Amino acid sequence: MTPRPDTPDSRPLPDTPPRPGRATAQDESAARPAGAEEGAAGTAESAGQTAAAGTAKAAAKKTAKKTAAKKAAAAGKAAAKKAAAEPGAARKAAAKKTAVKKTAKKTAAKKTAAAKRTVKKAAVAAQAPTRKTVAKASAVPQSEPVKDHAPNWPDARPPAPRRGEDAPDGHGVRPAAPLDPGERQRLLHGSHHDPHTVLGAHRTAGGVLFRVLRPYARSVTVLVAGMRAELHDDGDGLFSGVLPLAGEPAPPPYRLLVRYGGEPGTDEVETEDPYRFLPALGELDLHLIGEGRHEELWRALGARPMTVDGVAGTRFTVWAPNALGVRVTGDFSCWDGTAFPMRSLGGSGVWELFLPGVGAGALYKFDITRPDGSHTLRADPMARRTEVPPATASIVEESSYEWHDGEWMARRAGYAPHREPLSVYEVHLPSWRPGLTYRELAEQLPAYVKDLGFTHVELMPVAEHPFGGSWGYQVTGFYAPTARMGTPDDFRLLVDRLHQEGIGVLMDWVPAHFPKDDWALARFDGTALYEHSDPARAEHPDWGTLEFNFGRTEVRNFLVANAVYWCEEFHIDGLRVDAVASMLYLDYSRESGQWTPNPYGGRENLDAVAFLQEMNATVYRRCPGVVTVAEESTAWDGVTRATHHTGPGGFGGLGFGFKWNMGWMHDSLEYMTKEPVHRRYHHNEMTFSMVYAYSENYVLPISHDEVVHGKRSLVSKMPGDWWQQRANHRAYLGFMWSHPGKQLLFMGQEFAQGAEWSEAHGPDWWLLDPAYSAAGDHRGVRDLVRDLNRVYAATPALWERDTEPAGFSWIEGGAADDNVLAFLRYAADGTPLVAVSNFSPVVRGDYRIGVPGEVPAWREVLNTDAERYGGSGVGNPEPLKSGSVPAHGRPASITPVLPPLATIWLVPA
């Protein structure tokens, strides 16, 4: 098989160079005897001479037959007369009669052969000099069915013509009028916008014109109406001929027998002709694509296996509005795209071709002729499956997966995430346990997450990306799960298994930018298509990538449909949208003079705002129960406000369900890194989040970004010795789980991994090995995380009113010298929970806390200093009776013991 090219086709626009091992029309023209050109004075004259030659041939046949018959009759009469005259000589007469017949047949055969040679010489002289050879001049019935060697061709196919009286005889293949030189050049160069008008079968004067483009073929035979007719070889892989077929205006169904071998009957492929099919993409699809409103774009564009007119194959479609031409190439054509030029479907910018016999698993790319005439070989932007990187081809995909999460999906439709427990375990799938496939992960990850009590997992980007070190944040295959761990159906299995264990699946989605790889989206059709045409707006200054042109309807459609695609096709329960801030501001990471204000003089990217609003509105409308989460690091107003509600700045809300609380994350971690003796000076960093806690719907993230690139792991950020580091780590997690907002924790932090995360080796699971001397310390932290999730899920006060100010009340927010924070959380029915954090390394006994007077006693339900977590065991094992001593503005109080570097939770006893 010819190796697939890794670089774009750089063939020049002028005449196609001759293929090795085959003479071109020009070569044969040069080899003809002098005077051959005189026989090609014009198309009409050539046609006339050809017809005359055919007439002469027929006359010669007729004359030869008559002569042979007369001689045979005369010989027979003479023999009979002699036999009658000589009695007893009957046997001699019969023998002589037989000999005379044989002689007559031989004479007739010799004369017929001589006549054929004369006609053939005349026909060759009459051919135009551009003809390479003349094929068989008569249609011959096919003797046997020809074996089908076409790749992916199904066993069932139309019956081949048979030898016998059923096959018509005497229908000749006449040469077709030569193709216009300019059209021929465009066709061979890949810059023809409508190859179906040239190739295939078309009614013409006197029959049906067949024209086929099959590079490297030695011959092409049409199988039609029970007969087989070999086409004339026009050179450069083009074959044509006119068959005198009468009937309906539309050409009859036919198949092609393509021979690549040097001898007749060798290396033959029987196949359908792609150019006999009408477009397989509907007018409604094209209309919606043109409007940028096709919410199921993946069903219209890309590679889609289907059956057309009873023929199985794959429809290829791609949006490339500025291309001079597009061809599809792949392993089914030995990576030579010449044979399969696509047609342009009007002004939609979409190119289409249905390829019979190509099915799921086939590798393909698009050979695009750019406006300057050069070629570029591109992966499909809509590919639903790809090769394993670093290979870059797209793969025809057809899912056969049967879901088993019907119960989960039914519940999801009524899911109200703001009033439900939401505790998220963030995972980088390739490194969670390196080397596992999606199917192997499906056996291990759901069980692990369920055991720890997380309600959801959040997967770092799973869409295909060329560089693993980007962690998936530089995407080239927006519609394909990365092939590093298996097929798309394998990924479906992983999601399905998580759902069956009651675990929701969020995934990181990256619509802000894409890499510059020259086989992917960058300048896809030779122009700035997916990126902005202004380089100042296209280039992202921080990441060396390109930003999407959110102002172009087709680009917005590509991204909005992609968000829907993951939720509908893979049952994803939520999208965490990466780098929203970089999309919202024209001056993001740009200095003065490097950006242009919007029409109103502001720095807001109005196109990006419109895109995010459309994406959120579409996802929430089509996928009830799905949630979207914004990673937005600024104070943009209305990130989680409804799109139809206008804020003070004049903008409608962006429509997200949640926003990552980056401010809380940075402030709280800054506080925790300080030695306890210095924390009094940073106390407000732990309390400031409540100033804006209800301005948006928040998720509290301790994400992968906080444990890489020199930032150290969560436990390593903490001051003090190993015991104090773990104690701080546990106390911080207790504070985080009780703070208003949902929780997210990155893998490895649940067992206090000491090293930074690396995508090369993932979490240090060996820390939990019983053979390791400090394994108990790490297991203790993991046990705490399990209990945090268990108590959290069972306590509505911690999640039911997360987005309502009435769900929270400070008890003590100003005890900076004590490093103590205390507050109340309330469920919808008013049931309270008291959370107290002591971020000093000393035990504080009988620490008075004001509480609601209607609760007579309180009990400790969680203490991060418990011995089973690796703590000192200081706590409040007995219920705490509420006294009538007022404190913190409340009529009653309790006096719990506050363990060192610990958080405790108390609920009504």
Largest sheet: 8 strands, parallel, barrel
Secondary-structure class:
alpha+beta
Catalogue the unreliable spans.
1-65, 72-102, 118-171
Roughly how many Å is the radius of gyration?
A: 40 Å
Give a concise summary.
Its EC number is 2.4.1.18. This protein is of the alpha+beta class.
Secondary structure layout:
Layout: H1 25-31, H2 43-85, H3 90-126, H4 181-189, E1 200-204, E2 207-213, E3 219-224, E4 227-230, E5 232-235, E6 238-243, E7 254-259, E8 268-271, H5 283-291, E9 302-308, E10 311-319, E11 325-330, E12 343-344, E13 350-356, E14 363-369, E15 375-378, E16 394-395, H6 406-412, E17 423-427, H7 429-432, H8 438-452, E18 456-459, E19 463-464, E20 477-481, H9 488-500, E21 504-509, E22 513-514, H10 535-538, E23 546-547, H11 553-569, E24 574-577, H12 580-584, H13 606-622, E25 627-630, E26 658-660, H14 662-672, H15 676-679, H16 684-687, E27 698-702, H17 714-717, H18 722-738, E28 742-746, H19 775-794, E29 808-815, E30 820-826, E31 832-838, E32 849-851, E33 857-863, E34 880-881, E35 892-894, E36 902-908
Parallel strand pairs: 17-18, 17-28, 18-21, 21-24, 24-25, 25-26, 26-27, 27-28
Antiparallel strand pairs: 1-2, 2-6, 3-4, 3-7, 5-6, 7-8, 9-10, 10-13, 11-14, 12-13, 14-15, 14-16, 19-20, 22-23, 29-30, 30-31, 31-36, 32-35, 33-34, 33-36
Helix pairs in contact: 2-3, 8-9, 11-13, 18-19
Verbal overview:
- This protein has 909 residues and is of the alpha+beta class.
- 27% of the residues lie in helices and 19% in strands.
- Helix 8 (438-452) packs parallel to helix 9.
- The longest helix has 43 residues, at 43-85.
- The model is unreliable at 1-65, 72-102 and 118-171 (pLDDT under 50).
